[in-house]
Amino acid sequence: MKNKINYILKERKEKIILPEKLGFGQYFTDHMFEMDYSKDKGWHNATIKPLSEIYLHPATSFIHYGQTIFEGLKAFRTIDDEIQIFRPDTHLERLNNSAKRICMPAVDTEFVLEAMRELIAIDSDWIPNKRGEALYIRPFMFGSDPALGVRPSSEYKFIIILSPVGAYYPEGFKPVKILAQDDYVRAVRKGLGECKTAANYAASLLAANEAAKKGFTQVLWLDGVEQKYIEEVGTMNIFIHFKDEIATPKLTGSILPGVTRRSVIQLLKEWGLNVTERLISIREVIDAYDSGNLIGVFGTGTAAIISSVGLLSYKGKDMMINNGNVGELDLKLFNELTAIHYGEKEDTHNWTFKVEKKAIEV
Amino acid sequence: MKNKINYILKERKEKIILPEKLGFGQYFTDHMFEMDYSKDKGWHNATIKPLSEIYLHPATSFIHYGQTIFEGLKAFRTIDDEIQIFRPDTHLERLNNSAKRICMPAVDTEFVLEAMRELIAIDSDWIPNKRGEALYIRPFMFGSDPALGVRPSSEYKFIIILSPVGAYYPEGFKPVKILAQDDYVRAVRKGLGECKTAANYAASLLAANEAAKKGFTQVLWLDGVEQKYIEEVGTMNIFIHFKDEIATPKLTGSILPGVTRRSVIQLLKEWGLNVTERLISIREVIDAYDSGNLIGVFGTGTAAIISSVGLLSYKGKDMMINNGNVGELDLKLFNELTAIHYGEKEDTHNWTFKVEKKAIEV
């Protein structure tokens, strides 16, 4: 049975006026996409409808047992006033990998991509047009059985919501302060670390809170076994720019396989730079710093794209990176990626997917 | 400002007829307790109302970032037709410990206990009266900010629902088969293992599914660092009955501090037995088995109370425990605990909390 999108559209008479300060994930567009899964019907009830509350029985399984996954990606309004999504195919592929890890059903990625495009087309007036602003796309799925008992749900709901978001750095590209610590562990190999599921974010809150109290923007996580190797930063992957190498932690199972991470690795390779994915100990980073071989440190993620690290601290040792300034390479990567996002530069990688503005007759 | 319970009660004319097979977490009583938290008001809106759906904005933070905790405890109808809850004070203390670990607000345990008793009193006709049956109580809390962004929510909802449950072993106390494996890790020290949060259950699903396909009831988890020490079983803590010692894994941070575990340790001590909380390697269990020093293995948990392990398997080695029969000590513990639950034996530990049948004027 072929899945088909049903449309229930909101009548909007007034013009959409976006707030001056969009922030992140504070505002949502008029519509959402929703579909249901059951064992006998598979995915069904695909509907684009006005953004509305979800009704859940209080025993709904994911509330108690955490069977929930999500993705985060962005659509941009290009300088030619076109709309394009950055690597939705890769994001949906990762969604299905996450689903598998916690016993959830896969989605038909082509169908979901189609639904995503339709949804964005319908709500395209919500896409901001200032540089740095974008439409954040949040697909998510959860187990919806209304019964207690630790087992995979037999029913699921998949939803996409859209949020116009501001520039991550409203005052310009600014280096962040991160704290490497071994008081808390986010994830461990053979666990859920590589799965984009709620569990990993719950695991990060207390450490992030304590770091924030000390003036740090985010936490640099160490591996859960030896607490020796760097893994990832809060909501980003991490890259260490050594004198003759740009290294990023290899995917051991406890690290989120970031789409921006993947894009950056590809760009660096194309630029002829020596980029590696390997184990990197915090000790190695400190030694490189002490011997003057640490050129820069930066994070990659959908929200910030590229984030320069100006200060890295570990066990009381404060390492000021590149005199606290934005690294040259960091900025070059940021500019390259944003040039692709906003259509200033040709997309030679087929990373962007266009959205037709009038995808359906409303 | 003192929190006060508001009542919106359902009018029920027909008599409650419980299904013959209650199962676990399938049926729910007429009412629920609910209260809200905000930074300025603290906990407020405490209400006992008809069981109803929760309305959530699709961006509600816990759906995405997993800030959710729960408890599971039971109320029993005694042989004298009284109603009593087993160790609610200890469960609510653990709830607050869980809350702290993931940056959630604590509840006033006395107030919540009062609300729990009122709720149970109102729905007391739902409490089954057959031996082995009980009223399962599920308090839970989640972050309810309607915004995306990885940070502790500023608003929360706390709910209690009640579910009449059947005997865990409808055909009598029956040994289970468990599989120790090192393909997956549930939790690691400094992570969320000791916190009763959704994350740990999500982390357990795939391993449990694969074990079930091989005919095992549950998974015996090994520690996440060395994958050498036994930690806990699916939904239970584990005890190893050696010839001259009854040992249970010590609480290293990755193990749920079970209330039944705690009760069993106390009982065993009172019975003059040598009970220890320590690291127990899977190798030590195998060696004890091989040398004839392994008397029994059993699990403890609110659902099953005590569960005899009849078969323990690790890397292809099947260990038939006590010839696959229920251990003498396991049965003695089960009988002792259930005698306290159902009021056949005096509660000398102050573990039970009575519920007055007409707590309020309805």
UniProtKB/TrEMBL annotation, chains A, B:
Keyword Amino-acid biosynthesis assigned to the entry: answer is yes
Q: Which gene encodes it?
A: ilvE
UniProt GO BP: isoleucine biosynthetic process; L-leucine biosynthetic process; L-valine biosynthetic process
- What's the name of the protein? Branched-chain-amino-acid aminotransferase
Q: Which reaction does it catalyse?
A: L-isoleucine + 2-oxoglutarate = (S)-3-methyl-2-oxopentanoate + L-glutamate; L-valine + 2-oxoglutarate = 3-methyl-2-oxobutanoate + L-glutamate; L-leucine + 2-oxoglutarate = 4-methyl-2-oxopentanoate + L-glutamate
- Lineage top rank: taxon: Bacteria
Which species is the source of this protein?
Ignavibacterium album (strain DSM 19864 / JCM 16511 / NBRC 101810 / Mat9-16)
Pathway(s) per entry: Amino-acid biosynthesis; L-leucine biosynthesis; L-leucine from 3-methyl-2-oxobutanoate: step 4/4; Amino-acid biosynthesis; L-isoleucine biosynthesis; L-isoleucine from 2-oxobutanoate: step 4/4; Amino-acid biosynthesis; L-valine biosynthesis; L-valine from pyruvate: step 4/4
What family does this chain come from, according to its entry?
Belongs to the class-IV pyridoxal-phosphate-dependent aminotransferase family.
N6-(pyridoxal phosphate)lysine-modified residues are K196
User: What cofactor is this protein dependent on?
Assistant: pyridoxal 5'-phosphate
Concerning Pfam families, the annotation shows: Aminotran_4 (PF01063)
- GO molecular function annotation: L-isoleucine-2-oxoglutarate transaminase activity; L-leucine-2-oxoglutarate transaminase activity; L-valine-2-oxoglutarate transaminase activity
Job description of the protein: Acts on leucine, isoleucine and valine.
Sorted alphabetically, which PANTHER family does this protein's record hold?
Answer: BRANCHED-CHAIN-AMINO-ACID AMINOTRANSFERASE (PTHR11825:SF44), SUBGROUP IIII AMINOTRANSFERASE (PTHR11825)
Q: Which SUPFAM superfamilies match?
A: D-aminoacid aminotransferase-like PLP-dependent enzymes
